[in-house]
Amino acid sequence: MTDAIIFPGQGAQFEGMGQAWAERSAAAAAVFRQADEVLGFSLSEACWSGGESIHRTDLAQPAIFTSSVACLAGLKEAGLAPDSVQAVAGLSLGEYTALWYAGALSFEDGLRLVRLRGEAMQEASEASESGMMSLVGASLEQAEEIAKRGSAIGVCAVANRNAPGQIVISGEISALNVAEEASKELGVRRAIRLKVAGGFHSECMRPAANQLASALADVELSEPKLPVVSNVTALPITSAGEIRGLLERQVCSPVLWEESINWMLAQGHTSFLEPAPGKVLSGILRKINRDAICESADSPKTDEGAQTA
Q1: Residue 23, φ and ψ in degrees, nearest 5
Q2: How many Å apart are CA 170 and CA 133, to the nearest integer?
Q3: Crossing angle between the packed helical segments 173-185 and 140-150, to the nearest 10 degrees
Q4: Residue 6 CA to chain centroid, in angstroms?
Q5: Cα–Cα distance, 4 to 272 (Å, whole number)
Q6: What are phi and psi of 89, to 5 degrees?
Q7: Closest Cα to residue 130, out of 100, 172, 179?
C-alpha cells in the first residue's frame, strides 16, 4: 500500500517519456493535449520525437512535470492510483508536481511556472560558465570542505544532498576546477562533471530566482491537502503563504533530498510510488534505506503485469 509519492526532477528526462502512457490511456493523452494548448506549442512532440532537444532545461522541466501528471491520470483511469497517500515530495523541479498533487497549485499554473523556471535557468546558465559535479563516495563534511576551497575562486556550493555518498556541488567552472583537485587531495572516490546546462542550486542561478519570484507573485496558491516536504527545509510545507518564498529559495539553495526522505521515513512512510519519467528516485531511495519500497510507474503494465519498456 503506497503511503507516499516522490516526484522526479530534471535528469529523469529521455526521448519518448510519457508516450507509452499516452498511447494506452485516454486520460494520460488528454494531459499532454492540455499541456500543448497551455504552452502554445507541441510539448508532446518535443517529448517523443524531439531528439536531444528534450535535454534542454527549458523543455525538460515542463516535459517532466507533464509526464508525471499524465502517469497519475493513467493510473487513476486504470483504477490503480494510490488511495492512501499521506505525504509527497519532489526532487527540485518535482516539488512543483508534488504541490500540484497536494492541491496547492493548478496544473495550468504549475506548467507555466516550470516552463518559465526552465527558461530562466537556461538563460542564467548561458550567461556564465558554470556547471555541477558529483562527488561519489564523499561525506557531507568532505563535500563542504571541497566546495569551500572552490569558493575561494568563485561561486561553489553543495547543491544536492541526495543520499549517503551521493553529493553534488555546483558553481562556476573555474571554481569547480579547483574543487576537483581538492577532491583528489581529500580522497574522494570520484568527481564526475554532470551534463547539465549550468550551476543549478547555487548563486549562479540568482537571476532565475528573481524572475521566478516575480512570476510566483501572480499565481494563486492554496493550502496543501497533505504534507509536501520542502527541498529547502526537509520539513513539510504547512501553508500556502510559505510556498512562494520556498520555491524562490529553492533555485539557489541545496536540495536536501536525503533529509526529506528521512523525515518521511520517520513518520512511518515506507512504501513509495515514483511516477514517470524514469526510475532515478527509486535507486536513490535504496541508498538511503534498503528496507523502503518504491514502485516505479515509468510506463503502464502489460496484461502480464510486466513493464512495457
Answers
A1: -75, -25
A2: 6
A3: 130
A4: 9
A5: 5
A6: -155, 160
A7: 172
3-class SS of residue 206: helix
Per-residue tens of pLDDT for the chain, all 309 residues: 899 999 999 999 999 999 999 999 999 999 999 999 999 999 999 999 989 999 999 999 999 999 999 999 999 999 999 999 999 999 999 999 999 999 999 999 999 999 999 999 999 999 999 999 999 999 999 999 999 999 999 999 999 999 999 999 999 999 999 999 999 999 999 999 999 999 999 999 999 999 999 999 999 999 999 999 999 999 999 899 999 999 999 999 999 999 999 999 999 999 999 999 999 999 999 999 999 999 999 999 743 332 222
Beta strand extents in the chain (DSSP E only): 4-7, 87-90, 130-136, 156-163, 166-172, 190-193, 228-229, 236-237, 271-275, 293-297
Which residues neighbour 301 within 8 Å (Cβ) at sequence distance 6 or greater? 307, 308
Q: What pTM value is reported for the model? A: 0.96
Q: In sequence order, what DSSP letters do the residues of 102-164 get, joined into one string? A: TTSS-HHHHHHHHHHHHHHHHHHHHHS-EEEEEEET--HHHHHHHHHHHTTTS-EEEEEEEET
Cell numbers representing residue 305 in the block: 503485469
Task: Give the separation between CA 167 and CA 178, rounded to whole angstroms.
Answer: 17
Asked whether 121 and 198 are in contact (CB, 8 A), the reply is yes
Angle at alpha carbon of residue 255, lines to 268 and 120, rounded to 5°: 135
Phi, psi (degrees; rounded to nearest 5) at 60 = -60, -40
Pairing status of strand 4-7 against strand 87-90: parallel
Q: d(Cα 64, Cα 52) in Å, to the nearest integer?
A: 15
Reported residue count of the chain is 309
- What are the residue numbers of the active site? 92, 201
